[in-house]
Amino acid sequence: MTIAQLVLLGLFGFVGGVGITALGPGGVIPTIGLFTLTGLSATEVAGTAMVTYVAAAIVGAAVYVRSGQLRDPDTRRTGLLLAGTAAVSTPVGILANTALSRRAFGVLLGVLVAVVAALMWYREHRRPAVSVTHPSVPVVAGLGLVVAAVSATFGIGGPMLTVPLLIALGMPLLPSLAVAQAQSVAIAGVGSLGYLAAHAVNWPLAVLVGIPELAGVLLGWKIAHALPSRLLKNTLIVTLLALAPYLALRG
């Protein structure tokens, strides 16, 4: 790999970390970088990306405990339920990944990126919730099972899907971000163990992406609490929509 590619991978990690805690759908950015800038197989892309999310998820959950969202009993309960279901369905996603060729992985990742961009657009244009609304236990459990399986298949952060879906169900942004961090701890932890067992982790690239990603997580948390995020949201939506066909074709 060239120096420019290595620098770009670090940048993908940093931007992904910002997106994880500021918006939710940022966890796909490191995966996109690993897929487009390296020759890793689909399993290696997912495994390497998944390992980078372990520290990011732990720090993300910790900062949302500090800011109070995960100290709220209802929010904490939702987060624990999402984490519990993730521990069950993450191995299913890993098994699904092993059946994908690099071509199929790219096409499906492109479709997934387009779907997330559409969810973000819907979230941005719907009327915000005026109070904290927690979906019912069966809804949260079902969402958790599906999101964890999809996240493990593609090596993406759980918040990428969980945050837009929870907001679409009426939950405000900060509690949604908080519970998604708790879920991501389980997805990243179980997923990393599974991909390590399959010898599908490129450690030098994981470090190269993971360290800037961790810095981005801290910055993203501050952005979520301090700055208007409409411009950042719209930029991410446009970026994802532009990348979706490229991923599908590159696959």
Topology record:
Elements: H1 3-22, H2 28-37, H3 42-66, H4 73-98, H5 102-125, H6 137-154, H7 159-168, H8 173-197, H9 203-226, H10 230-250
How would you describe what is shown here?
With 251 residues, the chain is mostly helical. It has helices at residues 3-22, 28-37, 42-66, 73-98, 102-125, 137-154, 159-168, 173-197, 203-226, 230-250. α4 (73-98) packs parallel to α6 (137-154). The two termini are 19 Å apart.
Chain-averaged pLDDT: 86
What oligomeric arrangement do these chains adopt? single chain
Q: Count the helices. How many?
A: 10
Shape: globular
Low-confidence stretches are none
* Structural class by sheet pairing and helices: mainly alpha
Distance between the termini: 19 Å
- The helix content, as a percent range, equals over 70%
> What Rg, in angstroms, do the CA atoms define?
16 Å
The main β sheet shows up as: none
